[in-house]
Amino acid sequence: MTDNNLDNDNVENSKAPLVSHLIELRDRLKWAVVAFFIAFLVCYFFAEHIYGFLVKPLKDTYQAMGYENPRMIYTGLTEAFFTYLKVSFYSALFIAFPVIATQIYKFAAPGLYKNEKKAFYPFLVATPVLFVLGASLVYYIIFPLAWKFFLGFQTTGLDTGLAIELEAKVNEYLSLVLKLMFAFGLAFQLPVAVSLLARAGLVTAKGMREKRKFAFVGAFGVAAILTPPDLISQVGLGVPIIILYEISIRLAAIMERKRKENTDDDPDDPDNPNDTDTSVRSNKENIIDDIDDIPETDFSEE
User: Fold this and answer.
1) What is the pLDDT of residue 240?
2) Were 223 and a residue from 3, 134, 178, 234 both cysteine, which residue would form a disulfide, CB within 3.0 to 4.6 Å?
3) pLDDT, tens only, 152-161
4) How large is the average pLDDT for residues 293-299?
5) 51-68: string of b/e by CB count within 10 Å (b at 16+)?
6) 289 exposed, middle or buried (CB, 10 Å; 0-12, 13-18, 19+)?
7) pTM
């Protein structure tokens, strides 16, 4: 009966913290959604210009190959409209990401140690920067090479009697562009992911070095899945992943050293061998051992 009363008291005492956490989560989600909605409205107003920016590599490749007045088509009545909605959605997600990430961090921050809070600041900055670097690589280098390769399959019909020309659809082009940009952007998050895992002690630099050959094979396997079936895109993604993997090994080694230093210096860390509670427990155990070592006296002999 006493145990049931204690359980009921614990439930009653936990209601207030639970409700406060839910209120905090609601507020953080509210600001994230508001930021995304405002960014979406702004991006939809400029959706045509954003799509024009995305289609510019194809237009420049057409003109470089001597094609005049290139065009794109849409075959569904609502295709162009939903294409602009998709452009606005992903653009707004990118623009609002700093606000969304900040709200997530503020919700999780109270449960982190002081050194863990400091460790997250660089990652909040590095994540969008690395994503932009990956998207820029594919936009300025991979797109021109890949589009030139694909446009090379067009024929004038002089040899076969039947011309083969590209009629690119606006929706299919956007899907391909977004797929490549997100593939490169996410691949460039490898150092961030490895650094977090290394700081948590889930991966080590030594283990990553031992599995380097498997990682290289996996890099090109991932590139083959995420990119179109052309050698340019696959190599263009596979090689940066390998370079980022090597950088991640160095970062993992740095994170291991910092993790060890923070564990030794932070008295609030439960893993700290210098923790006061641990020392007290150790002293108590030593005292008990000393008491056990005292020889017994037989008072009956007196």
Assistant:
1) 87
2) 234
3) 888 776 666 6
4) 50
5) beebbebbeebbeeeeee
6) exposed
7) 0.72
Burial class (CB in 10 A: 0-12, 13-18, 19+), 147: buried
> What is the spatial distance between Cα 96 and Cα 38, in angstroms, rounded to a whole number?
9
Nearest-CA neighbor of 180 among 147, 215, 148?
Answer: 147
Q: How far is Cα 249 from Cα 94, in angstroms, rounded to an integer?
A: 28
Let me know: does 61 contact 145? Beta carbons within 8 Å. Answer: no
CA-nearest of 188, 200, 73 to 137 is: 188
* Structure letter (DSSP) for residue 21: H
> Nearest CA to 237 among 194, 193, 187, 189?
187
Residues pairing with 103 in the sheet: none
- How close are the terminal C-alpha atoms of the chain, in Å? 52
Contact in structure between 233 and 227 (CB atoms under 8 Å) = yes
φ, ψ (nearest 5 deg) of residue 110: -60, -25
| Residues whose CB is less than 8 angstroms from the CB of residue 268 and which lie 6 or more positions away in sequence, other chains included | 113, 114
Task: Give how far the C-alpha of residue 267 lies from the chain's centroid of Cα atoms, to the nearest Å.
Answer: 31
